[in-house]
Predict the structure.
Amino acid sequence: MSDALPIEVTSPTPLLELRGISKEFPGVKALDDVSFAVYPGEVHMLLGENGAGKSSLMKVLCGAYRADAGEFYYNGERVAISSTADAQKLGIAVIFQEFSLVPYLDIAQNIFLGREPKGRIPGTIDRRRILADAKRVLETIGFDIDPATTVDKLGVAQQQMVEIAKAISQNARILVMDEPTAALSDRETELLFALIARLKADGVAIVYISHRMAEVFALGDRITVLRDGRRIDGVRPADVTPDQLVRMMVGRNVDMTYPRHFAHKPGELLLEVKNLSAPTGISDINIEVRRGEIVGLCGLVGSGRSEVARAIFGADPVTSGEIIFDGKSISGEPDLAARRGIALIPESRKSEGLALLRSVSDNLVVSALKKLFPSGLFDQRSAQRTADGLIRQLRIATPSARQTVGLLSGGNQQKVVIGKWLAAGSKLFIFDEPTRGIDIGAKSEIFALIDRLVAEGAAALMISSEQVEICHVCDRAYVMREGRIAGHLARNELTEENIVRLGMHHA
Amino acid sequence: MTDITKGAIAPPRSFLSQDAVQLFYRLLAAFLICAVLAVLSDSFLSLGNILNVLRQASLTFFIASGLTLVVLTAGLDLSVGANVALSACLAGTVIHKTGSPALGILTGLACGGIVGLINGVMVTALRIPSFIATYGMLWVLNGLTYWYMAGETLHGFPAGFRQIGSGYLFGLPIPVYLLLVFLGIGTFFAQRTVWGQEIYAIGANPVAARLSGIPVARRLLLVYAVSGTMAGLASIIFLSRLNSAEADIGESLTLPAIAAVLIGGTSLFGGVGTVFGTFIGALILTLVLNGMNLLAVSANWQPLVTGVIVILAVWLDMKTRRRAQ
């Protein structure tokens, strides 16, 4: 580990330097003595798993969080960043993943929101000037569009451009971008990279957070790796390999192939879906899942995968068809499905899987209340014991079972959602994008968990947009297209090419 | 499998639960108010006055305790006061007609419970937001009660029945015993039963609760039925205490009950709060009003003071909760 600043920088003094920044939340040290510097005209990549401290560092930079300890230097002079206004004065602008644009205002109004040029009559806005000013800003970033277009008509990439234009119009010298390509197409990504090159040439310093190795090496001038709130290392792209970076992020070697530890022996038929149609847009769905196997459900986003999962679980109404679980026909609300032994691990765990303000313990026992307390009398201590057991079994990283679940990292939150169904003793686990927003280490842990569940006689139906995951983890898979099952792939046919081929729309 | 520890985790601290901390502050506030009143007024600490405060607080508490469960599910029941009025008038009529207090009590509880159940059906089956469903119900009940009573007043009930609201047992008013009983039942139900836990889970995130296998609609029905039944119970105690019933007796009951729930620390967003907190809320509300009476402050100031206390209590709660997160 080298704590010395990297060699041969473009400018002798960093534009912004952070020294020994620490930030603590109850139970979690989000940032621990982090030092970090950006030089004008460079792209500084910030790498780390979820929960490594990237977001916290970004929030400290833009003044949303106040650091508990540490110093800031701007062009070598000591400064304070204790509010967003401070950060703005220093020319620090952050492009978050969720944009802060007002959808019903036009581009020009959004760029100059709160700083509109005043008209001659007091209280009015000089409409002509705001459009002209906006046009000029858009030109400097090479974005050719009418500034009078309302933002709700723009795509994600264009909205991102407006955000950048807004930052530039505020004379931003340091631009922090949080996974800016996450929602962009290849073509849009190219345009963004061209813009970044232009900003670099103008001497803007860019802090770039990314999970994509390719862009780390394509764009980065320097790389800082964070792990567990600490700065692990600062390196140059030329000096490292992707594998080395992953090791730095994870702190150990990660096997990217999700190996199986158990042999799966498909047993009796557990779930049988016959000609299922639902008003949510799925029709004539036929699926079979046996005990002891992991069945994939793939296809493009919007092809009806989640709708199938929700229909099986009783979360959405069904128009026709039959769902037979464990030999008996089933229809009704989720409480019936849950009682019979079906578990749904929903796509958005924060809004559908967890009560974020409640404790880890409360969330872990919520589906098992009837099973744990058949008399109907609840006992907090016994609930906590069950929770402690699951926390150990699933290696949920939490200071205690009483910790608020919203404070855990994504991977640990996902383990809590899975844990509540383990407590309930479910037989069929339906996973809807189980690894979304989860870092590499937790991913392989979750797959190992699914693997073991199935080896012990449970069954899994797994939805994923990551075809690699489906190919590695599943015994076989159904591919959906436009609300229907487009095909079935046995283990030996399960390749990314086959999934894509079946899932594609044929014009 | 390899071990993963995300984020530097501090050692587990033994801390009081958020609920316990907030209850502690509320008890402290109640004691402070008592201390101030004891200094300012000679008559505050008299046995008669203290019993009076407890009896007053119990009336607010009966309505507010059922309401607490509704608010825990992130709902609201605005019909409780109107429900008390209709239940009291029907119960009074039955007692007059049959001479049987037992039948009257049953009528009051049943009327309250049925109204609550209808509220529950509107919220669950018809998916009308509880605020609107129960607001409409308020008008419907008022209309029914005014039509039924046609301006009449019922009064004069058997002495045995009147004991419920105004009698004493071992020197304590009977409503105070009822208060303790229902405080116990309410707290037990919320904290120590599976249904209670499910109600907290529904309030914290109704979507996640449903997808976790909780029968959300059935629990909501229960909660609104309980709220209505508690209004029915309150109607009996009112009837017995006032020895009369009129169509308008419910009009000044709903807002103080909501105030007690909020002062007691139950969040309107659901999932947070306790029945015991609501008791303290009712107590604080009654203490302040009682103190103002004793200090001969004009009754015109009472709504203003109630409003300020509600706002202060909720603001302090939000502040402490934000800090906790």
